[in-house]
Automatic annotation (TrEMBL):
This is Odorant receptor. GO terms for cellular component: plasma membrane. It is a multi-pass membrane protein. Belongs to the insect chemoreceptor superfamily. Heteromeric odorant receptor channel (TC 1.A.69) family. Its main location: membrane. One of its GO terms (biological process) is signal transduction. Keywords: Cell membrane, Membrane, Olfaction, Receptor, Sensory transduction, Transducer, Transmembrane, Transmembrane helix. It comes from Dinoponera quadriceps. It holds the Pfam family 7tm_6. The lineage of its organism: Eukaryota, Metazoa, Ecdysozoa, Arthropoda, Hexapoda.
Length: 387
């Protein structure tokens, strides 16, 4: 199959399903229906949190907070994307224009096809890993319940896929089976939503990096030319400057779309990681292997999620730096003064590196990810010493 877009078929389907793709039919109705279902789930989830907000029920409280906060983050992500429909449209139109320009030039098409292949693979891998982690998390509760019953712990309640409290009798058949199926499908839908959003930011950064690689290749081609024709180079450099401006505009739209979202992602994931570490310490000392395995898989999924955002910011920053290096390494000293000044402007503009920020307060990078992991490890050591 010939790749003609950085957006994978799975990601495109997900964007259409979540009504993020422009010009979808009945968009308002679908958004209201999905958001209403999430808000209803949140009501039952936070009801559970408030009921079990007791020190002696710390394990149930922490376990419920993990999924509850994840649902709250989903609301923030969807609201942000739906609110910025114009920005999403501009981004998709820019990507389509870039691909139409690449089709006519083989070396451009080769660069973008390589980026698109990575994007498609990562999108599919994210969905697979998140699905496996979620299923293991849900099965962990059922496994723990079976083990407790075998130990005669006097547990008579029937577990649900996630922690919540219904305002009616929900453990009688067939109501129980219907609710379990509904909750399982809703949890998987939430995982699908989170995966689509994560895959979207990764895909957009890969597309921007592909465009930067094209400009770098053009500077390299200019450096390999033996004879400098003024008109040819003026036209080529002018085209590269226009392409560079398009990348800057594309990056600004990414910042508008994901800045607040990434801030909430870092904040919420930090809370979830701390909650999981409390659950990990409790499971390590009190629970059998099922609870520990469940916690480890969810912790890994949350860590991968925050790593995706930080890696995307780091990758975009490094690519913008490579653009300045490519411009400087070109044979600018053999060009006319006018062309030299144009390249100088490219170098100067590239020194202000493209980046993704968490609410404009911190650039997303691997250093930020390392800081989060370092704080997480310190928190675990303190919990272990206090337990």
């Amino acid at each position: 199959m010939v790749i003609t877009s950085t957006i994978s078929p799975l990601l495109k389907y997900g964007l259409r399903f979540l009504d993020i793709w422009p010009d979808m039919a009945f968009s308002t109705v679908k958004r209201l229906f999905y958001m209403l279902s999430i808000l209803i789930m949140q009501f039952f989830q936070y009801h559970y949190v408030f009921v079990h907000f007791k020190f002696e029920e710390m394990q149930n409280l922490v376990d419920s907070l993990t999924v509850t906060l994840d649902y709250s983050l989903t609301i923030v992500k969807l609201t942000t994307l739906w609110k910025n429909r114009r920005v999403v449209r501009e981004i998709l139109v820019a990507m389509d224009t870039d691909w139409r320009e690449c089709i006519s030039v083989d070396r451009y098409l080769q660069v973008m096809t390589s980026k698109a292949s990575i994007s498609h693979f990562c999108s599919n891998a994210m969905l697979g890993l998140n699905t496996i982690a979620t299923i293991l998390y849900i099965l962990g509760d059922y496994a723990l319940n079976i083990v407790h019953k075998d130990k005669n712990d006097n547990i008579t309640s029937r577990p649900f896929p996630i922690k919540l409290i219904f305002p009616f009798e929900a453990e009688q058949s067939p109501t129980y089976e219907l609710l379990v199926l509904t909750l399982f499908l809703h949890v998987m839908l939430n995982v699908f939503t989170v995966t689509i959003v994560n895959a979207l930011i990764f895909t957009l950064v890969l597309h921007a990096s592909g465009q930067i690689d094209i400009i770098c290749e053009e500077f390299k081609t200019l450096s390999e030319e033996k004879i400098f024709y003024c008109g040819y180079f003026e036209h080529t450099i002018g085209t590269l400057i226009k392409k560079h401006n398009k990348i800057i505009s594309f990056s600004k739209n990414l910042e508008k779309l994901f800045s607040f979202m990434t801030l909430m992602q870092v904040f919420w994931n930090t809370l979830v990681i701390c909650s999981l570490e409390i659950l990990f310490m409790i499971s390590l000392h009190n629970e059998p292997g099922f609870g520990l395995m469940k916690t480890v898989f969810v912790y890994g999924g949350i860590t991968v999620e925050i790593f995706i955002f930080c890696f995307a910011g780091e990758y975009l920053r490094l690519k913008s730096k490579s653009l300045a290096d490519a411009a400087y390494e070109s044979l600018w000293y053999n060009m006319s003064p006018k062309n030299c000044k144009n390249i100088l402007f490219v170098i100067m503009r590239s020194q202000k590196q493209l980046s993704l920020t968490a609410g404009g307060m911190a650039n997303l990078s691997l250093e930020v990810f390392a800081s989060i992991m370092k704080a997480s490890a310190s928190y675990v050591s303190v919990l272990n010493a206090m337990y």
